[in-house]
Design a protein that fits this description.
By secondary structure, the chain is of the alpha+beta class. It contains three helices and four strands; from the N terminus they run H-E-E-H-H-E-E. The longest helix is centred in the N-terminal third of the chain and has 30 residues. It starts with 21 loop residues before the first helix and ends in a 7-residue tail after the last strand.
C-alpha cells in the first residue's frame, strides 16, 4: 500500500512523480537528446550569422561579431546591464576597480592613502 504524502502547509495530498524505470530513463534520454540537438543547431546558426561580413551605413565592412560588439557598446550608454555584459566579457570584476582611498566607519571618514581631500 502506497503512503499518501501530505503538504505540511495545507494538508492536501502531494502529487507523486513517475517511478524511475528503464522506460522512463529512455524517455528522459530521448527528450534530452532532442533539446541538445536543438541547442547545437541554434549555436551553429548563430556562429554562421556572426561570421558573415556586413556593410555599415557609413560603408565600412565588418563581421557580425564586430557589429555585435559595436551594438553592445552603444547600448551600454543607455542600459547598465549592457555595461555589465561588456565588463564581464572582457574579464574585469566589479571588485577589481574598487576605490580604497577612503573607508567609512560609523560617522568617520578614514583616509587610507595619506591624502586628505579638504
Amino acid at each position: 500500500m502506497d503512503k499518501v504524502y501530505r503538504s505540511p502547509i495545507n494538508g492536501q495530498p502531494l502529487p507523486r512523480g513517475k517511478p524511475f524505470t528503464s522506460e522512463t530513463a529512455r524517455e528522459a534520454a530521448l527528450k534530452s537528446n532532442a533539446k541538445q540537438a536543438a541547442k547545437r543547431s541554434l549555436k551553429e546558426c548563430l556562429l554562421t550569422e556572426l561570421a558573415k561580413t556586413k556593410e555599415t551605413k557609413d560603408g565600412r565592412k565588418i563581421t557580425g561579431l564586430e557589429a555585435m560588439c559595436e551594438a553592445a557598446v552603444a547600448m551600454s550608454l543607455k542600459n547598465p546591464k549592457f555595461w555589465e555584459l561588456i565588463r564581464d566579457t572582457i574579464g574585469e570584476k566589479p571588485v577589481d576597480k574598487m576605490d580604497m582611498s577612503h573607508a567609512f566607519i560609523g560617522d568617520f571618514d578614514i583616509v587610507l592613502d595619506g591624502e586628505d581631500g579638504d
